[in-house]
Design brief:
It is built from five helices and no strands. The chain is mainly α. It has one domain. The radius of gyration is 17 Å and the shape is flat.
């Protein structure tokens, strides 16, 4: 994988981590009284994170194949588990861990298959 594509992939995962934080802000805002400072602050954070995500996503799909970018979006489920534990002290069941591992395995397998296909295309081209 070329260095620029590797950077774009790391950027994508950082972007997806930030995107998944919008759910944390949304849940926090939902627990606050409507139109209170706390509600407006966290709702504003949701809008800000989604705005950053929208702009970042456009940059990612310029640099990575669309199939790779969309396959990696599944990682937000894993981030959701991490944020649930860190911010809301949610329990992680063994079944959730298995599900998260399956998601990660799928992303890795897809990335490896896509990398092999790109390598073959370069050799043929």
């Amino acid at each position: 994988m070329p260095k620029s594509e590797r950077r774009a992939l790391i950027g994508l995962h950082l972007l997806l981590a930030g995107y998944s934080l919008s759910d944390v802000c949304s849940k926090t805002a939902a627990g606050a009284p409507f139109m209170s400072f706390r509600f407006l602050f966290f709702y504003g954070c949701v809008l800000g994170l989604l705005g950053v995500y929208a702009i970042g996503w456009q940059q990612v799909i310029r640099r990575l194949p669309l199939t790779v970018a969309f396959a990696n979006r599944a990682v937000t489920v894993v981030w959701g588990i991490v944020w649930g534990v860190l911010f809301f002290r949610e329990q992680v069941s063994p079944l959730r861990l298995v599900g998260a591992a399956l998601i990660m395995a799928g992303v890795v397998l897809f990335a490896r298959a896509d990398g092999r296909q790109a390598e073959e295309e370069r050799k043929d081209g």
